[in-house]
Amino acid sequence: MATTKTATVKKEKSVSELVNALAETTGISKAKAKEVLDAHAELLINELKENGSVQLAGIGKLKLGERAERQGRNPSTGEAITIKASKTVKFSGSKRLKDSFQ
Q: Is residue 2 part of a domain?
């Protein structure tokens, strides 16, 4: 009988897993690690709001972008709909980041 291989699906790390990894790597408490991650997120959000982009050394760049209003389709009914214009955050990986996956 032939055996079948199942694909291993890697799941995203949850916030608590990131907190645990940061605490373990740096030797700080989990509470302090959570505080650091929360502060980092706030700093990134505020910087994007104020300047429209954030350079993360060795990782890449976050940039605020805009999506124009466009036409789409309701997948249930097939009816044409208008999708409102919206703002989004775009990420561009640094050369170092991209090269690490070669």
A: no
